[in-house]
Design a protein that fits this description.
With 286 residues, the protein is of the alpha/beta class. The protein is 47% helix and 14% strand. Bound molecules: acetoacetyl-coenzyme A.
């Protein structure tokens, strides 16, 4: 199967990054969100990222224009009727994703593959919302998408070999290195990353250290590019909490208990960079 038109549902921090790398690989992209302003904000982010590439001499101005020209804005899921491959990158909420997959299943061509960028919801549960579970797969990009090399490709119980092979080769076409994971809560990336972040929040909660000291220990002591609390702010504290809840519900093992302080921050609307406040304060909303 040849992928020509690539759909992305969600134009937020993950969705616009995925749209950018897909358009840069030469595909026509439909970037969808529920409101025009969200799509425009996503396009603005892509424009700024590409402009940095031009300023640094990585791409020419005409290449930037061509990449942007391949991204078609959309606010109606029916636009995905033209797509050969769709990645859903909406908010990490099960009910929301289920609804999107039911709608995509109804509007997309029967041969189209429906992938999800979910960071933790079981692929099998999402696939069961559709009449094509063999064409449903996890395609989990890392944030910031244009920079991070990994795509975690997750097979659901019913995912076909053909769907898997196509998703794998598409990841490579986007300049990424895929790794295969099976469908257990958190897959590989978040099964390991999120308990580490949660433990860093526990360190703050118990007064073991300040946010700065906790992050300094991990940056300089373990050579992590950023500390776990700064990384949580980048990912979004609501997403971190949702992933911990999924691990906790999925394994029923107390080692996955979300830190009460993480919950408190989320309830207060301190979601990290996107709201200007998380474990750190940010000057402005990015
Ligand atoms: N979008 C696009 N490009 C970005 C970017 C963004 N949001 N943030 C940084 N960059 C680019 C910069 O422009 C810069 O490019 P050049 O080399 O061309 O100048 C490059 O990345 C390096 O950036 P900086 O010099 O500003 O800063 P840095 O060297 O500290 O790198 C970082 C920034 C790439 C974010 C680095 O700190 C890092 O790798 N952090 C860890 C990120 C990580 O762990 N991500 C995974 C999160 S988990 C996840 O996504 C999955 C999930 O399900 C929760």
């Amino acid at each position: 199967m040849d992928v020509r038109v690539f759909g992305v549902v969600g134009a937020g921090q993950m969705g616009n990054g995925i749209a950018q790398v897909a358009a840069a690989s030469g595909l026509e992209v439909i970037m969808n969100d529920i409101k025009e302003e969200f799509v425009q904000k996503g396009l603005k982010t892509i424009d700024a990222n590409l402009e940095r590439g031009v300023a640094k001499g990585r791409i020419r101005a005409d290449e930037k224009a061509a990449i942007l020209g391949r991204i078609k804005p959309s606010t109606a899921l029916e636009d995905m009727a033209r797509a050969d491959f769709v990645v859903e990158a909406a908010t990490e909420r099960e009910d929301l994703k289920f609804g999107i997959f039911r709608e995509l299943d109804a509007v997309c061509p029967s041969a189209a593959i429906l992938a999800t960028n979910t960071s933790s919801i079981p692929i099998g549960r999402i696939a069961a919302q559709t009449g094509r579970p063999e064409k449903v797969i996890g395609m989990h990009f890392m944030n910031p998408v244009p920079v991070m090399k990994l795509v975690e490709v997750i097979r659901g119980l019913a995912t076909s070999d053909e769907t898997f092979a196509l998703t794998w080769s598409l990841s490579e076409r986007f300049g990424k290195t895929p790794a295969q994971a099976n469908d257990y809560p958190g897959f590989i990336a978040n099964r390991i990353l999120m308990p580490m972040i949660n433990e860093a929040v526990y360190c703050l909660y118990h007064g073991v250290g300040t946010a700065e000291d906790i992050d300094t220990v991990m940056k300089l002591g373990m050579n992590h590019p950023m500390g776990p609390l700064a990384l949580a702010d980048l990912i979004g504290l609501d997403t971190c909490l949702a992933i911990m809840e999924t691990l906790n519900d999925g394994f029923r093992d107390s080692k996955y208990r979300p830190c009460p302080l993480l919950r408190k921050y989320v309830e207060a609307g301190w979601l990290g960079r996107k709201t200007g406040r998380g474990f750190y304060a940010y000057d402005r909303k990015p």
